[in-house]
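explain this.
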Amino acid sequence: RISFDLLCPHPLHMMLTWILLGQVPFFLEDPDYKGLELDLIVLCEKHGKPSERLVAFEGTMTGRRFLACAEPEGQNCGFVQWVDEQWPPTMENALLKLWSMVEESKSARVNDNLQSALTIHHLAEEKNKLDADYDKLVKDVHQLVDFQQDRVVDFSYLQSAVTYQHQCRAELVAG
């Protein structure tokens, strides 16, 4: 059971908080209407224990107070007795529109999350490709540097051979 009554004492704030968190409960605890029903002594039909006071938070029943089996989930028999009368049709239509907007918002968030996940997947693939290209480029640069060093060594050898031939020729001419 979700309860933010201490964090958000106003029911509208609670509803917006749940919607933003993506957690919409079926009922909520109202600080003015909570706990076990001891005044009317409405007993749960199956367990014979006092029922729990709750406020509906789903569909056209949103905001209506009711009494329900106070047993924990799994042992709860599903007993419900409405305290408030059914809303007028205009209120029910407004609630249906609001819940429709909530569902559209959740659906849009899911679609945005899927699109973001797809974008992240494509970016990860592109990063992996760029990493592979980078690794190949580094390898090619190392090969080029090694080849250039080999050419410098070969050039140095040729230069020393030419210098040696010049010295030999100079000795022959002088001698």
